[in-house]
Amino acid sequence: MTDAHILIIEDEVKLAKLLRDYLQQAGCRCSLHHRGDDALQRIQEENPDLVLLDIMLPSKDGMAICRALRHVSQVPVIMVTARVEEIDRLLGLELGADDYICKPFSPREVVARVKAVLRRSSTASTPPEGLQLDATRYRARLDGHDLDLTAVEFKLLEYLAASPGRIFSRTQLMDHIYPDQRIVSDRTIDSHIKKLRKKIAAADPQSNLVQSVYGVGYRLEEE
Q1: Per-residue DSSP letters for 47-80?
Q2: Which residues contact 55 (CB under 8 A, 6 or more apart)?
Q3: 159 — phi, psi (to 5°)?
Q4: Along the 223 residues of the chain, how does pLDDT read in single tens digits?
Q5: DSSP code for 128
Q6: d(Cα 80, Cα 15) in Å, to the nearest integer?
Q7: CA angle at residue 181 from 179 to 183, to 5 degrees?
Q8: Calpha distance 58→46 (Å, rounded)
Q9: Strand 77-81 to 50-54 pairing
Q10: Does the reported pTM lie above 0.85?
Q11: N or C: which end of the chain has fewer CB atoms below 10 A?
Q12: Range 6-19 burial, b when 16+ CB lie within 10 A, else e
């Protein structure tokens, strides 16, 4: 958390400054931006450790910014929204948001959420202990046991393992394993996950490596 660079993209200037003050007290460096049309350019120029991104912005909304950002960067994004409808929450996760904060909120809650996401992202490149992945041969081992995965199962596990603790929606997983955009249903992903879990359980019956997040998708267990 100390010296992490947070880019706050929020058109309510007073709110943006309030968030900046609290995050700076927690040891962060903060910069502010108040428009949506050039927000992606600003993110790329500043290369922050995390982006606090408001959904309702002038010229271009946060959903569109997050969608475009995920084509060029995996920087953690916490979306700030006054929309509490579940469809917006799910849509944001499908676009790659790491977390949500709904207005009105306590600035202290924002600091806590930022700390949690930064903590997860700092270990995102480290697979859980005991899991070994060989992408050249599509080979996976857990605690010394071969998992004997299909190519699709390996790609799913590898994608989840790249960001332990991060929630991936079914749409994100489908886009990764089927880049040709073929039409498949949510049940296809669920079926692959079920088979993957069965093979993991054969290697370690106590493992909860691939976890379900009800109504959203899946994540890999953090160390």
Answers
A1: --SEEEEESS-SSS-HHHHHHHHTTT----EEEE
A2: 61, 62, 63, 79, 80, 81, 82, 83, 88, 92
A3: -65, -45
A4: 668 999 999 999 999 999 999 999 999 999 999 999 999 999 999 989 999 999 999 889 998 999 889 878 889 999 998 876 655 666 666 777 888 888 888 999 999 999 989 987 775 445 667 899 888 888 999 989 999 999 999 999 998 888 787 788 888 888 778 766 666 676 888 999 999 999 999 999 988 899 998 777 888 987 6
A5: P
A6: 11
A7: 135
A8: 20
A9: parallel
A10: no
A11: C
A12: bbbbbeeeebbeeb
Q: How far apart are CA 29 and CA 1, in angstroms?
A: 10
Pull the structure tokens for residue 10: 């929020």
Structure tokens at 138: 């599509």
Give the C-alpha separation, 100 to 201, whole Å.
32
* Structure token pair of residue 68: 């475009």
C-alpha–C-alpha distance, residues 9 and 51, integer Å:
7
